[in-house]
């Protein structure tokens, strides 16, 4: 970490009888106000002259104690930090970490101590509870009373749940805050649109050794709900001191794009625990489960065998796709199991033993010859009981990583299991992608071998749902779930149809939205291991596949020059000297414009543009390809079809 400056202010003149404290962002636009009252500590948040969060109570309830009422405030400690740090994988390679901080020491009569630490950035607020070492040695937390008293009646974008156990895959509800049903679990991140100059999102960062957080509407305000430990409902967290909660994060901006650009979540995580990260190779991967395990008419029998995997390895090698996924075939996993189907695990399941028809070592050796890495799919319940044994075998075969699927929990036990998987995987030089998982919380800074997570209702649904994934849903994901981090989405469907022609197809599934929309999703979404999930013949010779083959998955810089909720978004990401721009549209045909203000001054860029035109209205797989040149400050206006999109590759002209 490069330290630019570090200033500590200890206000010796602070009046301890004073119970109100203000902390402003470095640019002065966000104000966090704290007040200690007899019944609880309270906070509120202003953005400019607008109140976003009114008086909101803080507190924690334990089996044997309460840290909420009758608290005493000690001497606050202030500091301002302005540093930069590197990310191995992410939407930027270097991030600025600039905030003002106050630590508020609180005690109760029995001398139990907790610090509330608040950091105010130019694009949001983070705060958490910290438990220093003290005579109180451990705790069992039953409730966290952190609340969010939303001011006014903003439009809310959120997923609702009936229980804590879920894959976090659902459509979003969009409604005025006042219409949110009482006592309904709300997933995070959620988006709160106050006006065209005020946007807010609530989520969490650095979720480790703690329970996942939800929100529930009480008497007009939102209160934190924690996923309980398995087998009971009362206890949410068990911990030994010293300990701390995750950061409760409130992203704030005068435009929705500012929330997408924010690096607060990684800034609130610890630096990498992996010293040598040279083996971590982000990229794209095949994933033939999505397309229905398609192979061409050949002389070999498709199945869990070498030749089926060789077909996809050859395709990856030819088209700059670094990874091939060994999954199984026809609903059966590649490893020995006495259970039927992917979603269940039997007592005799063994990840160190491939099924008899699969030659794993031969597959890995062949892939290495072709310059392709092998990853595998596993069920977490099959993996965890033999974690070290399985990882040692994977490393010996030459496997580079895996999808760990069917998580479906975010209680403290599962949060710790997932971190244990990442730690063990790093020792064996393996990457992880979590599926059926809760939102990311910035842990890819600490464990950069986590390349992506699912936790999104995505294109796999087109295999079995009568109502396909819509362009509107894609946009909702960008302004909600993606604010937390990488979103694995089963990308790459190259068979777009008009909405009236959609039908369920488990093999060769169809998609709604134009091909340029699908191409743009590789830029618009953040994911460090994007899928190229269709089958080789769906891509070969098809316009636009050249862009899919070459588009990066990690970035040096991300900006959002144009975005409008429920309408469209334009995201520009830089890798080295090249820029990649992706735009996606809702179902309403429209003209969109943006400015190239983010380009390097004085540099001319050659632009290759893939987009929609009049023919796309009737043939959504049609792409118009053209070339232009642009410089910093140039304006660009373009048309997008219903469900349309645009991608641009910008290369500097020498």
Automatic annotation (TrEMBL):
<dbReference type="InterPro" id="IPR014718">
    <property type="entry name" value="GH-type_carb-bd"/>
</dbReference>
<dbReference type="InterPro" id="IPR013785">
    <property type="entry name" value="Aldolase_TIM"/>
</dbReference>
<protein>
    <submittedName>
        <fullName>Glycoside hydrolase family 97 protein</fullName>
        <ecNumber>3.2.1.-</ecNumber>
    </submittedName>
</protein>
<keyword id="KW-0378">Hydrolase</keyword>
<feature type="domain" description="Glycosyl-hydrolase 97 C-terminal oligomerisation">
    <location>
        <begin position="555"/>
        <end position="650"/>
    </location>
</feature>
<keyword id="KW-0106">Calcium</keyword>
<feature type="domain" description="Glycosyl-hydrolase 97 N-terminal">
    <location>
        <begin position="23"/>
        <end position="271"/>
    </location>
</feature>
<dbReference type="InterPro" id="IPR019563">
    <property type="entry name" value="GH97_catalytic"/>
</dbReference>
<dbReference type="Pfam" id="PF10566">
    <property type="entry name" value="Glyco_hydro_97"/>
</dbReference>
<dbReference type="Pfam" id="PF14508">
    <property type="entry name" value="GH97_N"/>
</dbReference>
<comment type="subunit">
    <text>Monomer.</text>
</comment>
<dbReference type="InterPro" id="IPR017853">
    <property type="entry name" value="GH"/>
</dbReference>
<dbReference type="InterPro" id="IPR029483">
    <property type="entry name" value="GH97_C"/>
</dbReference>
<dbReference type="InterPro" id="IPR029486">
    <property type="entry name" value="GH97_N"/>
</dbReference>
<dbReference type="InterPro" id="IPR052720">
    <property type="entry name" value="Glycosyl_hydrolase_97"/>
</dbReference>
<dbReference type="GO" id="GO:0016798">
    <property type="term" value="F:hydrolase activity, acting on glycosyl bonds"/>
</dbReference>
<dbReference type="InterPro" id="IPR013780">
    <property type="entry name" value="Glyco_hydro_b"/>
</dbReference>
<keyword id="KW-0326">Glycosidase</keyword>
<dbReference type="Pfam" id="PF14509">
    <property type="entry name" value="GH97_C"/>
</dbReference>
<feature type="domain" description="Glycosyl-hydrolase 97 catalytic">
    <location>
        <begin position="289"/>
        <end position="455"/>
    </location>
</feature>
């Amino acid at each position: 970490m490069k330290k630019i400056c570090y200033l500590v202010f200890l206000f010796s003149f602070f009046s301890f009888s004073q119970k109100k404290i203000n902390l402003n962002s470095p640019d002065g636009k966000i104000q966090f106000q704290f007040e200690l009252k007899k019944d609880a500590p309270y906070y509120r948040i202003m953005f400019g002259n607008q109140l976003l969060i009114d008086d909101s109570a803080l507190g924690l309830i334990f089996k044997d104690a309460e840290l909420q009422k009758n608290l005493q405030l000690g001497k606050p400690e202030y500091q301002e930090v302005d540093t930069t740090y590197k990310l191995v994988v992410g939407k930027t390679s270097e991030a600025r970490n600039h905030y003002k901080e106050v630590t508020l020491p609180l005690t109760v009569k029995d001398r139990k101590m907790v610090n509330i630490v608040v950091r105010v950035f130019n694009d949001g607020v983070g705060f958490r509870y910290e438990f220093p070492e003290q005579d109180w040695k451990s705790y069992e937390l039953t409730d966290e009373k952190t609340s969010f008293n939303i001011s006014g009646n903003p439009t809310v974008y959120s997923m609702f749940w009936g229980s804590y156990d879920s894959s976090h895959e659902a459509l979003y509800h969009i409604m005025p805050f006042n219409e949110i049903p009482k006592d309904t679990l709300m997933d995070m991140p959620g988006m709160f649109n106050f006006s065209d100059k005020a946007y807010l999102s609530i989520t969490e960062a650095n979720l480790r050794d703690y329970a996942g957080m939800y929100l529930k509407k009480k008497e007009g305000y939102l209160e934190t709900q924690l996923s309980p430990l398995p087998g009971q409902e009362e206890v949410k967290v068990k911990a030994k001191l010293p300990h701390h909660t995750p950061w409760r994060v409130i992203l704030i901006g005068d435009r929705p794009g500012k929330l997408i650009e924010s690096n607060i979540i990684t800034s609130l995580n610890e630096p990498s625990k992996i010293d040598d990260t040279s083996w971590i190779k982000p990229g794209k991967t095949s994933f033939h489960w999505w397309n229905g395990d398609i192979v061409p008419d050949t002389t070999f029998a498709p199945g869990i065998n070498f030749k089926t995997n060789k077909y996809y390895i050859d395709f990856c090698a030819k088209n700059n796709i670094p990874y091939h996924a060994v999954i199984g075939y026809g609903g059966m996993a590649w490893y020995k199991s006495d259970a039927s189907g992917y979603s269940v695990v039997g007592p005799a399941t063994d990840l160190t033993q491939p099924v008899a028809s699969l030659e794993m070592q031969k597959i890995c050796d062949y892939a290495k010859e072709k310059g392709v890495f092998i990853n595998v799919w596993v069920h977490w319940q099959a993996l965890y009981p033999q974690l070290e044994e399985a990882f040692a075998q994977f490393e010996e075969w030459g496997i580079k990583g895996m999808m760990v699927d069917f998580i479906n929990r975010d209680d403290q036990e599962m949060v710790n299991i997932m971190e244990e998987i990442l730690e063990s995987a790093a020792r064996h030089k393996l990457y992880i992608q979590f599926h059926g998982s809760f939102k990311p919380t910035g842990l890819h800074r600490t464990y950069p071998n986590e390349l992506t997570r699912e936790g999104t209702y995505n294109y796999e649904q087109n295999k079995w749902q009568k109502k396909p994934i819509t362009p509107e849903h894609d946009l909702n994901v960008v302004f909600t779930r993606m604010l937390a981090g990488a979103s694995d989405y089963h990308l790459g469907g190259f068979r777009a149809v008009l909405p009236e022609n959609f039908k369920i197809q488990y093999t060769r599934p169809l998609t709604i939205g134009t091909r340029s929309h699908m191409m743009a999703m590789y830029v618009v979404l953040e994911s460090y291991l994007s899928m190229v999930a269709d089958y080789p013949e769906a891509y070969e010779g098809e316009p636009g596949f050249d862009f899919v083959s070459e588009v990066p998955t990690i970035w040096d810089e991300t900006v959002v020059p144009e975005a409008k909720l429920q309408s469209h978004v334009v995201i520009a990401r830089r890798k080295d000297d090249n820029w990649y721009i992706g735009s996606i549209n809702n179902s309403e045909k429209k003209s969109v414009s943006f400015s190239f203000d983010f380009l390097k001054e004085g540099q001319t860029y050659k632009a290759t543009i893939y987009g929609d035109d009049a023919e796309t209205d009737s043939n959504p797989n049609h792409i118009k390809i053209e070339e232009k040149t642009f410089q910093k400050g140039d304006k660009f206006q373009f048309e997008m079809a219903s469900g349309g999109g645009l991608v641009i590759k910008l290369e500097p002209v020498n």
